[in-house]
Amino acid sequence: MLLRILQSVVGLMLLVQASVASAVLSIEIIGAGEHQIPIAIVPFGGDAKLAQSINEVVVGDLQRSGLFRLVDPVGKQPHEVAEVNYADWQVRGAEALAIGTVAAQPNGRIEAQFRLLDAVKQTELLGQAVAASGGQVRAVGHRIADLIYEKLTGDRGVFSTRIAYVNRQGSKYRLIVADSDGYNEQTVLAQTEPIMSPEWSPDGSHLAYVSFETGHAVLYVQSLYTNLRKVLADFRGSNSAPAWSRDGRQLAIVLTRDGSSQIYLVRPDGSGMRRLTFSGAIDTEPNFSPDGQSLLFTSDRGGSPQIYRLSVNGGPVERMTFGDGANFSPRHRPDGKGFVFAHRNKGRFHIATQDFQTGQMEVLTEGGWEKKPSYAPNGKLILFASEARGRGILATVSSDGRVKQHMFTQSGDAREPVWGPYP
Q1: In whole angstroms, what is the distance from residue 337 CA to residue 331 CA?
Q2: 308 within 8 A of 317, measured Cβ to Cβ
Q3: Tell me: the pLDDT tens digits for 112-165?
Q4: Is residue 235 within 8 Å of residue 255, measured between CB atoms?
Q5: Phi-psi region of 163 (alpha: psi -120 to 50; beta: other; left: phi over 0)
Q6: Using an 8 Å Cβ cutoff, are 387 and 395 in contact?
Q7: Whole-prediction pTM value?
Q8: What are the backbone angles phi and psi of residue 309, rounded to the nearest 5°?
Q9: Which residues of 63-97 are buried (b: 16+ CB within 10 A; e: fewer)?
């Protein structure tokens, strides 16, 4: 793997571009966290090839988060605590230091022993062994990066999670599942008809999505382990916008079989269907609250697309967004305290968030063609569809709007992204 990092600083703005030759996505990072933690990732000892691969993954993950400033370990390569001269790292400005070794085991597995050290207090913060099968070197690196991220920020890392998106190249559509950094791309479905609205099951084992392969929009649920799929809904008209409940026992879907787009609940096997909305307007894009008791959805019942909330047990519908512009595609924050959505104003689409308690809306992006936001499972990053250089791309923004990433596919347009759950 080749890792190339181009870094330039203009005032407080940091631009980092990391292009990875074998990755499906190349990543461009714009911005930095308010306080970047200076950390040195010392190349591991032991098997040189494994060590290089793991080191590149850990460095790339932490760099992409925007929360860390990588301190160059050149000339110093301690692998054990006894070999660490803390004064050396304090002079270089490192507040933390990761060291370790990696080895291939006789059973074909690989095992990395690593330690995270506080270079200022000269104490060990974390010591752990991470093991995986021989073909999962990158998984070991992601796991180490997750552990470092959690120890130093207090938030659980999401580097070991996966994303799903649709890649369109000419008349060909592919439903893709990949690691959060674009590696290990797997094609779940390939066809010449559109694919839309992929949605992860809460345990990450299935995807629900919309396919037009039969000539109209049909809902499917597909296992990522067996690739077996089944029809969830194939009624007259359109079948669209699936959303899983957090316990995986039901999905909210949108059907036009009774007239306009309305929201229904259904079990994953297609049974037990129950209609939830009866507006006669266009009600679509449902999303379950973390406790499964309510749904956010988009509706034009007030004259323009806005975000509304409805209990799964029925009752009055509550409008959530007001003010100028239109609002679409709501998704709950993982802690249930707010939601993210696409906000259109003066012809530009922005990614915005709103807090349930205060009702305050915050626009996180400059605007353009920015749609379909979804939270990372730790709630600290938001993945969405955007455009750059004349192509459809994937993008992320931190929940405070400070750090942004553009993720370019090698070819075609990337659309309909959604962040998967913790593994």
Answers
A1: 11
A2: yes
A3: 999 999 999 999 999 999 999 988 999 999 999 999 999 999 999 999 999 999
A4: yes
A5: beta
A6: no
A7: 0.90
A8: -130, 140
A9: bbbbbbbbbebeebebbeeeebebebbeebebbbb
